[in-house]
Amino acid sequence: MKVKILLSTDAHLFINKQPLEVRAKIHFNIDKIENGTISTNLFKKLKGTEIWELRTLYGGMAYRILAFWDKQERSLVIATHGFIKKTVKTPAKEIAKAEAIMNEYYKSK
């Protein structure tokens, strides 16, 4: 299944702040997902939420971009924002931020 990933301004800013090699790896992983590679190593649903995590590992660092599916489009993923993951669990404040962006997105539709 092919999907389209739209990056929010916050997601773009996060990616553009990273070193060139990290940016390249993040874009490489996004391209893989858009071309049908939906592997939990790259794209994983967070338990108990409608939020998904685009996952990139580089140089021992875990780069994450949170996203959600547009339920009407069915093949469109909206990436909300990114962060560097420093713990095993995704921080609740990052999930809450993504959920707030998702709720605003649906209100504006």
Description:
- This protein is α+β, with helices and mostly antiparallel strands and 109 residues long.
- The chain has a single domain, classed as YaeB-like fold (2-Layer Sandwich), CATH 3.30.2310.20.
- It has three helices and five strands, in the order βααββββα.
- The two termini are 25 Å apart.
- The mean pLDDT is 93.
Q: Quick gist of this model?
A:
The protein has 109 residues and is an alpha+beta fold. Helices cover 38% and strands 30% of the residues. The chain has one domain: 2-Layer Sandwich (YaeB-like fold), CATH 3.30.2310.20.
Outline the fold blueprint.
Elements: E1 4-7, H1 9-17, H2 20-34, E2 43-45, E3 52-58, E4 61-69, E5 76-85, H3 92-108
Key features of this structure:
YaeB-like fold; alpha+beta; 30% strand; 109 residues
Order of helices and strands: EHHEEEEH
How many strands appear in the DSSP assignment? 5
Output the CATH homologous superfamily.
RelE-like
**Could you say what the CATH architecture is?**
2-Layer Sandwich
Q: Provide the gyration radius in Å.
A: 13 Å
What's the structural domain tally?
1
CATH class: Alpha Beta
